[in-house]
Amino acid sequence: MTNRKDEHIKYALKYQASYNSFDDMELIQHSLPDYDLKDIDLSTHFAGHDFDFPFYINAMTGGSEKGQAVNHKLAQLAQATGILMVTGSYSAGLKNKKDRSYPSLREFPDLQLAANIGADKPYQAGLQTISDLQPLFLQLHLNLMQELLMPEGERSFRLWKSNLADYAAKSPVPIVLKEVGFGMDEQTIRIAYDLGIRTFDISGRGGTSFAYIENQRSSKNRSYLNDWGQTTVQTLLNVQNLTDKVEILASGGIRHPLDMIKALVLGAKAVGLSRAVLELITSHPLPQAIDIVNSWKDDLRLIMCALNCRTIPELQSVDYLLSGRLLNIRNRKDLTGK
What we know:
This protein is an alpha/beta fold and about 350 residues long. The chain has one domain (about 5-325): TIM Barrel (Alpha-Beta Barrel). It is about 35% helix and about 15% strand. The chain has helices spanning about 5-15, 65-80, 90-95, 125-135, 145-150, 160-170, 185-195, 210-215, 230-240, 255-265, 275-285, 285-305, and strands at about 25, 45, 50, 55, 85-90, 110-120, 140, 175-180, 200, 245-250, 270-275, 320. The longest helix has 21 residues, at about 285-305. Mean pLDDT is about 90; it is low at about 330-338. It comes from Streptococcus chenjunshii. This is Isopentenyl-diphosphate delta-isomerase. Pfam families: FMN_dh. InterPro entries: Aldolase_TIM (IPR013785), FMN-dep_DH (IPR000262), IPdP_isomerase (IPR011179).
């Protein structure tokens, strides 16, 4: 019997998004910068921690031998380059105490590690995850459409909000609420804010499509939902009014440093990469993958210099142009409703 997690990896690599919203956003360059390249500072802060770089490996896999192999390479890559790694959902680890598919700080003592679990899991499950993995923060994922399309998916959702309230009030580590590629809307952020959540990964459409993945696994013909949700840039534009109240992280279709910078311009504190890094470790030897990730840091600095920005917060002052499908985007009301 094929492992569901292995099928996710297979179809994630197979899927090609038909549209990436970052291609409809253009940055306005600055021809007379105030800084030297060496002055550029890539550090950022979110979820209660300082990070040297504004990008990280986002949650992907676990719970299988293939997942273990993937996670081992991802952990090696993250540790060697000094970037954060978020584990895939720890649900398999909770079910099987012998599961060794998730990276541990015993094996990778210098790894910046965060953990992921579904918002359907009660606080006690999250506490066990924190105890097992000792993460810097706990990422709670919202995957409603994936669950609805998944043949073996959840059908009960009423407790998700009370679970979030428990995590926000009781967790010994910071909480990050994450979508899984469908785009988190402002209303969801407003509700979660009232429950006590302060950091959000909006994870928009444009990268891995879990609608496509589950439709590939299902016998039902629901391919018309493969493009469900809002794109990453569209989502970022819609939540820009919230960045003075909450921390926004961005993921979903981020392919390279220019996409990273565009997300940071739109208010993200950092960006998460999944498929781009998965492709990297499956198509390159690890030493070459490490060199490529390190080169991304250099590229971020040179793009920031061309935008006359020394720090990540300064990027939010950069002018940009929207075209194509993004032309009609309008910001919605902020958390206060004003």
